[in-house]
Design brief:
The protein is α+β, with helices and mostly antiparallel strands and 174 residues long. It has three helices and eight strands. It has one domain: Peptide Deformylase.
């Protein structure tokens, strides 16, 4: 099995940097990084993870929605590597919901996000993909996309009153 990677924690400068575009998809190291990100997101009970979170400055993330301890009501989808992703269009409707982050353990925040986003990205095989994502999966995409621009979910919380601990969050959804 592929090894898990260490997750950079809030305060690590890489989490505040603009990530670099992925240019060489056939690079074996890049394919290994994708495999390790897939393993890490599962082992850490995440629903997404961006390369900067494992100290790799690439415009790459994994969206891996599935129910788990941290997100018991998440929809199931095949884990997907998204390289050089872009948001093409988005809904006007915004929805606030709770988010956490593997790089900010123990904290949740109410974050406004677009209900749906039309996105474009290159998949792991080098094919350009375009799709519309909605609700929770759209939220994951936007959260991970922010990581590529040095933004964390706490930057999007509208009030410090909307930040709680993980323990309090689990009580609320229980």
């Amino acid at each position: 099995m592929t090894e898990s990677l260490q997750i950079a924690q809030l305060g690590n400068p890489i989490l505040r940097q603009q990530a670099q575009s992925v240019d060489n998809l056939s690079d074996q190291k890049l394919q290994q990084l994708i495999d390790k990100l897939m393993t890490t997101v599962v082992s850490e009970s995440g629903v997404g993870i961006a390369a900067p979170q494992v100290s790799q400055s690439y415009r790459l993330f994994i969206v891996a929605s599935r129910p788990n301890l941290r997100y018991p009501h998440a929809p199931v989808m095949e884990p997907t590597a998204m390289l050089n992703p872009r948001i093409i269009a988005h809904s006007t409707e915004m929805v606030k919901d709770w988010e956490g982050c593997l790089s900010i353990p123990g904290i949740r925040g109410l974050v406004p996000r677009y209900r749906s986003v039309e996105v474009e990205y290159t998949d792991q095989e080098g094919q350009l993909q375009r799709q519309e994502l909605t609700d929770f999966v759209a939220r994951i995409f936007q959260h991970e996309y922010d990581h590529l621009d040095g933004i964390v979910f706490l930057d999007r919380v509208e009030s410090t009153q909307e930040i709680i601990t993980e323990q309090e969050y689990l009580k609320r959804i229980g």
